[in-house]
Design a protein that fits this description.
- With 356 residues, this protein is α+β, with helices and mostly antiparallel strands.
- The chain has 2 domains: 2-90; 109-353, Bira Bifunctional Protein, Domain 2 (BirA Bifunctional Protein, domain 2).
- The protein contains 11 helices and 12 strands.
- Strands 1-5-6-12-11-8-7 form a 7-stranded mixed sheet, with helices on both faces. Strands 2-4-3 form a 3-stranded antiparallel sheet. Strands 9-10 form a two-stranded antiparallel ribbon.
- Strand 9 (281-282) and strand 10 (285-286) form a beta hairpin.
- The longest helix is centred in the first third of the chain and has 40 residues, at 51-90.
- The N and C termini lie far apart (93 Å).
- The structure holds phenylalanine.
- Phenylalanine binds next to strand 11 and strand 12.
Length: 356
């Protein structure tokens, strides 16, 4: 029996030094040390021995059991060290490797222009505000001195908003539309009731148009001053300040008589051409970019008394001036930006976008 016990120890040591997974180790534990395992089986033989023999064999049995347990502990620690180093190996990371730089984008050309414009007007005390881009007929037309059915409305090729039943949505302030100009913000700003007003409202506008010079969606910046003594002189000063700040100190402006229903008198603001320097000619040949030395920027004028009334004020007490110019057009008039098709701005072509 002593031999059998010592043989079991040798067998266990050999087996455990070769085992290579924790699962196999558990199987071996049951097989050798389990309640019905090999050791328990052998020890059953103790019962048949004499007291003397029991003493000797009992001591051997203890020694063998301790030996087997030691072999198990060794195997277990060997396997857990191996598992830890395998984990280290698979999760190893070289923190000194150069990283992958994230692609850094930049603001779109139009967004940059909006920021520039906002900053220039901020110097003159104009506060940026936002007004709805989906609005009611009242604010876009009616309050702007264009009663319904007035033919002047045709100049603003307007998109109306239809509901699920296919009918144009209508509310207390008329039909729902996509603002065709930022002038809808004028009466809305006056309705806030805080005077005097020096507003610069920049937002999206929508018109039924699309060609090399027009987009169905574009941006305008609307200036509005409402005060007790607003004057054309002040309007002209604001135009000059903007033109020199945005286009450069050598550019000059002129106000050309025009007509809008919501201003009186009305003007178109022209800016001297960057290509011919305002002369209309390059090397004795007619300038290709401008009309006789001038480029059209957009509309302006003294706020019409009816608009001031619509804003809840007395036109004998308050006066004002306003202007509304296209962001994209203004930006394209900046010297050196030779874009021949305005639609490229919103095609999301990175080869174009990344240049700015
Ligand atoms: N709203 C006009 C347009 O879209 C521009 C304008 C604004 C003219 C304010 C005069 C005063 O063309």
């Amino acid at each position: 029996m002593e031999n059998e016990l010592r043989q079991l120890l040798a067998e266990a040591q050999a087996k455990l030094s070769a085992v290579d997974t924790m699962a196999d180790l558990e199987v071996a534990r049951i097989e050798i040390l389990g309640r019905k395992g090999k050791l328990a089986e052998l020890l059953k033989g103790l019962a048949a021995l004499s007291i003397e023999e029991k003493k000797v064999i009992g001591a051997v049995a203890n020694e063998v059991k301790t030996g087997i347990e030691k072999a198990f502990m060794e195997a277990e620690s060997r396997l857990s060290v191996a598992a830890a180093s395998a984990k280290n190996e698979s999760e190893w990371l070289d923190v000194t490797l150069p990283g992958i730089a994230p692609e850094v984008g930049h603001a779109h050309l139009t967004t940059q222009a909006i920021e520039d414009i906002t900053n220039i007007f901020a110097h003159l005390g104009f506060v940026r505000s936002r007004h709805p881009e989906v609005d009611w007929d009242y604010y876009a037309f009616e309050a702007m001195n264009m009663p319904s059915d007035h033919p002047a409305r045709d100049d603003w090729e307007t998109f109306f908003v239809r509901g699920e039943n296919g009918e144009v949505k209508t509310g207390a302030k008329g039909k729902m539309l996509l603002t065709p100009h930022t002038s809808n913000g004028q009466v809305r700003e006056m309705e806030k009731g805080v005077f005097p007003i020096r507003m610069i409202s920049i937002g999206k506008c929508f018109r039924r148009q699309a060609d090399v010079r027009h987009l169905p969606m574009f941006h305008q910046f609307e200036g509005l001053v409402i005060d007790k003594k607003a004057s054309v002189t002040e309007l002209k000063g604001v135009c000059d300040y903007f033109a020199k700040s945005y286009f450069g100190p050598d550019r000059v402006t002129r106000l050309r008589p025009y007509h809008f229903r919501f201003t009186e008198p009305s003007f178109e603001l022209d800016i001297s051409c960057s290509v011919c320097g305002g002369t209309g000619k390059v090397d004795e040949v007619k300038c290709k970019l401008c009309k006789e030395g001038w480029l059209e920027l957009g509309g302006a004028g003294m706020v019409h008394p009816n608009v001031i009334k619509a804003g809840g004020l007395d036109p004998d007490e308050y006066s004002g001036f306003a202007f509304g110019w296209g962001v994209e057009r203004t930006m394209m008039m900046r010297a050196g930006l030779n874009i021949d098709d305005i639609r490229i701005l919103y095609k999301n072509d990175l080869r174009f976008i990344r240049q700015f």
